[in-house]
Design goal:
Strand order of the largest sheet: 2-3-4-6-5
Helix content: 10-25%
Structural class: alpha/beta
CATH superfamily: Bacterial OB-fold
Strand content: 25-35%
Pfam families: BOF (PF04076)
Keywords: Signal
InterPro entries: BOBF_sf, CarO-like
Largest sheet: 5 strands, mixed, barrel
CATH class: Mainly Beta
Number of helices: 2
CATH architecture: Beta Barrel
Shape: globular
Distance between the termini: 58 Å
Order of helices and strands: HEHEEEEE
Length: about 140
C-alpha cells in the first residue's frame, strides 16, 4: 500500500510540475492586466485573405469576415483578450494560447500579422485570431 501511495504521489508531483512548466512558457511578455501567460504554435505561410487596417475593418467590416491585420499587440487585457494596434487604430483581439508562435516571446515592440475573423456584434466588436506570425 505504501508503494502504491508513493507511486501515486510521484505521479501527482510530475503532473503538477508539467502544468507549471506549460504555464511558464509564456509567449506574450508585454503589458498585462492578468498574470495568465500564453503558449504554443502557429501557421505563418502565405494567405489569400485581404490585408486590412484596423480602421478599415471597424468602418467597413462585416460580421464573420476574414481578414489579416499587421501591427503590434500592445497589452494583455486578461484571459485570451489583448489590445492590437496599427497606425490607424486599436481593436480588441481574442488569441488562444496555442496561436502564439511556439518558442518565441512576443511583446509590445514586436510587429505581428494576425489572420482571423471579425466578430461584429451589438455589445462587442473584436477580432478572433486563427493564426499569428512575427513580422521582420
Amino acid at each position: 500500500m505504501h508503494k502504491a501511495l508513493s507511486a501515486f504521489a510521484a505521479a501527482v508531483v510530475l503532473a503538477l510540475g508539467a502544468s507549471v512548466a506549460i504555464a511558464q512558457s509564456a509567449s506574450y511578455t508585454g503589458p498585462s492586466s492578468s498574470n495568465k501567460p500564453a503558449a504554443a504554435g502557429t501557421y505563418s505561410g502565405p494567405s489569400a485573405v485581404p490585408l486590412m487596417t484596423v480602421k478599415q475593418l471597424l468602418d467597413t467590416g462585416r460580421d464573420d469576415q476574414h481578414a489579416r491585420l499587421q501591427g503590434r499587440i500592445v497589452s494583455h487585457n486578461g484571459g485570451d483578450r489583448y489590445t492590437f494596434e496599427d497606425a490607424t487604430g486599436r481593436i480588441t483581439v481574442e488569441i488562444d494560447d496555442d496561436r502564439f508562435p511556439a518558442g518565441q516571446s512576443i511583446n509590445a515592440e514586436h510587429r505581428v500579422e494576425l489572420l482571423g475573423e471579425f466578430d461584429k456584434g451589438i455589445r462587442k466588436t473584436e477580432f478572433e485570431v486563427d493564426r499569428m506570425a512575427l513580422l521582420p
